[in-house]
Write a structure and sequence with these properties.
about 475 residues; alpha/beta; Rossmann fold; Isoleucyl-tRNA Synthetase, Domain 1; 5-stranded mixed β-sheet; 4-stranded parallel β-sheet; 14 helices; 16 strands; elongated; binds adenosine monophosphate; binds zinc ion
């Protein structure tokens, strides 16, 4: 079986073949650190986490670099608004970003390059583009990329060459597809840049946003690497411009697979700072939601489909995570010794999960395989039809799946591994209290267990328990 990914560059699914046999090099555009990232941003970062984790599940070694944009139009504007230096501003949000990644159990990348750490390399790349005739200087000390000189310009975003505004220029980092024109590689110093400036062959100035990623990706991963990711809004102009810069500076081979994730929406609109319809991770945690539910909500819709954010979805997500944890706890504590078909079931679940995820990370297919196993496992344990070794097999597979999902060991409102013997002994104490008509004591035991996320259910066959 081979993995297939939808490659934005080709607009179809393609078999994934890394340049090096077992090693995958991937670059993921990181946050602009002028504010807290919102959970829309984390949808994209979470997709990249699942992509990386799944490649690891398939035994690839993954080298990931994720940049931090710590100098651009937004960071400079915000630092001036707040009356602090660029570094004071970006240090605050770099730290917040790393803390969020940890809370969401996103695997750390090997490299987190920061744009301000690569200015000489950026100047060098712009010079190379200028020397090769792809760039030109303007009177204000800026340097622009001439899109007419690169015939494939627009191929990633599927632009119509007739609609490009040839001979016109755009100084802003972000602009619309309809306004494709020459873009800034280097921006000559302006009053509003305050003290953010570097010396260059063109005078004082600062890099454009797009050149930052062309430089950091190739510096860390080489001129030709496997995967480049971002959200769909990165396709144009950011990734289109990155391709133009890197190919014209370094040669035709740049990135083999371009993968882009769809938006997280709120009331059918993109969650974004500009619409002011966003939630940060902190907002949701402060409201009492757990990071595991947020993670689950963001990973369980296919990355090329939009997700509409709602608190109902978060509640549903929490239930699903709890169900998986409850299943794991039950397996850990399982003692009966039935004969069973666990090994065959484990193989089937593993194969089905892998087959689904190989198909462009089809997460719904992957989850269907997992929950099928959960249903079968629960039924078999309830009827004492599972052997202890069967339970161990299933546990091992659940651990393997959780390398990709990464929710079982996250902090939550629940204790993670519940000690079944302890709960049973509490139930026995409660039964004694009840037969002595000591209802205060029996209620106290119920409350104590409830506080640990354990619910007691009194049935005709005695008291059962489950995780809430
Ligand atoms: P920024 O900090 O604006 O550069 O964005 C960081 C990443 O978040 C980029 O890859 C964007 O494509 C992605 N992004 C921004 N808004 C959303 C959203 N609502 N849903 C999914 N991804 C998003
Ligand atoms: Zn980028």
């Amino acid at each position: 079986m081979s993995i297939q990914f939808y490659n934005t560059k080709k607009r179809e699914k393609e078999i994934f073949n890394p340049i090096d046999r077992n090693r995958v090099r991937m670059y993921t555009c990181g946050p602009t650190v002028y504010d807290y990232a919102h959970i829309g941003n984390y949808r994209t970062f979470m997709f990249e986490d699942i992509l990386r984790r799944y490649l690891e599940f398939r035994d690839y070694q993954v080298i990931q670099a994720m940049n931090l944009t710590d100098v651009d139009d937004n960071t400079i504007r915000r630092s001036r608004e707040r009356g602090i230096t660029l570094t004071e501003l970006t240090d605050e949000f770099k730290a917040a970003f790393h803390a969020d990644l940890q809370s969401l159990n996103i695997q750390p990348a090997q490299e987190y390059p920061e744009a301000t750490g690569y200015i000489p390399e950026m100047i060098e790349m712009v010079e190379r583009l200028e020397n090769k005739g792809f760039a030109y200087k303007t009177d204000d000390g800026s340097v622009y990329f001439n899109i007419q000189k690169y015939k494939q310009y627009g191929s990633l975003a599927n632009l119509n060459p007739a609609e490009m505004l040839t001979g016109e220029r755009v100084a802003d980092d972000s602009y619309e597809k309809e306004g494709a024109r020459d873009f800034a590689l280097w921006k000559g110093y302006k009053e509003e840049d305050g003290n953010v400036q570097w010396d260059s062959p063109w005078g004082k100035g600062r890099p454009g946003w797009h050149i930052e990623c062309s430089v950091m990706s190739t510096e860390l991963l080489g001129n030709h690497f496997d995967i480049h990711c971002g959200g769909v809004d990165n396709i144009f102009p950011h990734h289109e411009n990155e391709i133009a810069q890197s190919v014209c500076a370094n040669g035709p081979d740049f990135v083999n697979y371009w993968l882009h994730s769809e938006y997280l929406l709120v009331d059918n609109k993109k969650m974004s700072k500009s619409l002011n319809n966003f939630f940060t991770l902190r907002d949701l945690l402060d409201q009492g939601y757990h990071a595991d539910a947020i993670r689950w909500m963001l990973i369980t819709t296919h990355y090329r489909q939009k997700i509409n954010f709602s608190v109902d979805r978060l509640h549903e997500a929490q239930k699903s995570v709890n169900r998986l944890r409850e299943f794991r706890n039950k397996l850990v504590n399982y003692k009966d010794a039935g004969s069973d078909h666990a090994e065959k079931r484990v193989r089937t679940a593993d194969d089905q999960f892998t087959k689904a995820m190989d198909d462009d990370l089809n997460i719904s297919g992957g989850l269907a395989a997992i929950f099928e196993l959960v249903r079968w496992g629960n039924r078999s344990m309830d009827h004492a039809e599972l052997s202890e070794s069967g339970a161990k097999h299933i546990l091992t597979l659940m651990g393997k799946f959780d390398h990709v999902l990464a929710v079982l060991d996250m902090e939550s409102g629940l204790d993670q591994i519940v000690d079944a013997d302890f709960i049973e002994s509490k139930i026995a104490d409660r039964n004694t209290a009840r037969s002595n008509k000591d209802f205060a004591a029996s209620d106290a035991i119920r409350d104590e267990l409830a506080a640990q996320g354990v619910e007691l259910i009194d049935t005709a066959d005695g008291t059962k328990w489950k995780l809430k």
